[in-house]
Amino acid sequence: MRVLVLGNGGREHALAWKLSMSPLVTDLYAIPGNPGIARVASIEDVSDPVGIAKWARDNQIDLTVVGPEYLLSVGIADIFAEYGLKLFGPSKEAATLESSKVFSKELMRKYGIPTAGFAVFSRFDEAKQYLEGKDCPLVIKADGLAGGKGVVVAKNKAEAISALQSIMIDRVFGEAGNFVVIEDFLEGKEVSVFALVNGDKVIPLVDARDYKAAYDGGEGPNTGGMGAYSPVEDYTDELSRRVYEEILEPTALGMVNEGRPFRGILYAGLMISPEGDPYVLEYNVRFGDPEAEVVLPRLKSDLLEAIVALMDGRTVELEWEGSCVGVVLVSKGYPKEYEVGYPIKGLERVQDVLVFHAGTAMKEGELVTAGGRVLVVSALGKDREEARQKAYEAVSLIEFVGMEFRSDIGRN
Ligand code: AMP
Ligand code: GLY
User: β-strand 138-142 against 151-154: which pairing, if any?
Assistant: First the structure.
């Protein structure tokens, strides 16, 4: 099969790396790719979604796998469908599961999928009045995509009102703030779960936990993710069975019932309550980054075979191994201002880990930094402690000017 991966981050490097090992693949391509992906795939330079679809048609691509949400939200799956091309990723309508909190909360309510209690508002005065009868903390969410900044956990009424004010009156997220969801605060531990989905068919992947805060101990601003590990030990087999039955399958069936069948990687961000019950905090319509970089190394089975089976309406059992810890190396200053263009040294010394490229580039034959998140060092071990030690040992051999990372990934 001729396979194409779309995207250029660590997540897409992990996807391309895993797909490249499939005996079903004859040729693997990536658009736009990065220097890490270039080791396992041929990189093509095509820009807009229609251009990519034309390229895929002209190059007889049998299957395209999409990494990032922005391509999905602009309807890459719909464009590929118009060209009669197979693509593993949701249509624009199905991607609403991530792009509208109101849609996803109402879907959960309709299909009895466990989630925090909520109410939806389009008028500031009504939202403010609703607060009167509620206890804090409360969670205020802008309906639309807000670059990960649209959620405020308000500790008191003043914070809640100020969040409503900035979303609904100052309109800091523009149209994404036409509606707000006010949600009950849930206590517990967060875990991310993933599944390959096509319509009513679901192949569950495994769980992971990511580290959003920039600095050790959960301090500092939120980032795209500073590291992750898989599996999460307190996420038991019993819980995983319940999540399949109470969340993943009803979500897939609900989407079919709504006339928006989902195809692609479904990511459910869960809160596990102190009583051990799972609740959905949010859905994403793509793999997590850096979660993909710790989930895929554990997969013993052929990812492509599983996707092909699903596209044909069949499910398969997947086999998993070990424990994986991934540490993200970032440019000093990330997630705010940072500098790029610094040579990355020491990669040739690193052994027994996977180094996924996130923000790298080639400059005059040399690998240099080109983004906030630069590399993800993922190590597989028999348990989390072994994986963590291997990952940090490798990290200590890599250097670039301004290199920063959290030192507590996988520790807890
Ligand atoms: P979301 O984008 O909806 O996942 O929200 C981003 C983050 O806000 C989550 O990862 C949680 O840490 C937190 N959060 C969202 N909703 C809730 C909730 N109902 N209770 C507690 N924390 C929440
Ligand atoms: N690591 C969180 C995300 O991919 O959204």
Answer: antiparallel
Residue whose CB lies within 8 A of the most ligand 2 atoms, among 192, 207, 327, 378, for a mutation test: 192
Ligand 2 atom at minimal distance to the Cα of residue 288: 4
The Cα–Cα gap between 307 and 133 comes to 48
Distance 145 CA to ligand 1 centre (A): 14
What are the structural domains, with CATH classification, of the chain? 2-91 (3.40.50.20), 117-184 (3.30.1490.20), 189-311 (3.30.470.20), 323-395 (3.90.600.10)
What's the first-to-final CA gap in the chain, in angstroms? Answer: 41
Element (H, E) at 284: strand 278-284
Q: Which amino acid is at 388?
A: R
Does ligand 1 come within 6 angstroms of the Cβ of 153?
Answer: yes
Q: Ligand 2: which residue has its CA nearest to atom 3?
A: 288
Q: Would you say 36 and 15 are in contact if contact means Cβ atoms under 8 Å apart? A: no
Bridge partners of 366, per DSSP, are: 363
Residue that the structure tokens 């850096």 belong to = 290
Distance in angstroms (rounded) separating the CA atoms of residues 65 and 15: 8
Per-residue pLDDT tens digits for 278-307: 999 999 999 999 999 999 999 999 999 999
In degrees rounded to 5, what are phi and psi of residue 334?
Answer: -55, 140
Ligand 1 touching residue 139 (CB < 6 A): yes
- C-alpha–C-alpha distance, residues 217 and 41, integer Å: 37
Q: Residue 168 and residue 51: Cα distance in Å, rounded?
A: 37
pLDDT digits (tens, 9 = 90+) for 121-177: 999 999 999 999 999 999 999 999 887 788 999 999 999 999 999 999 999 999 999
CA of residue 269 to ligand 2 center, whole Å: 9
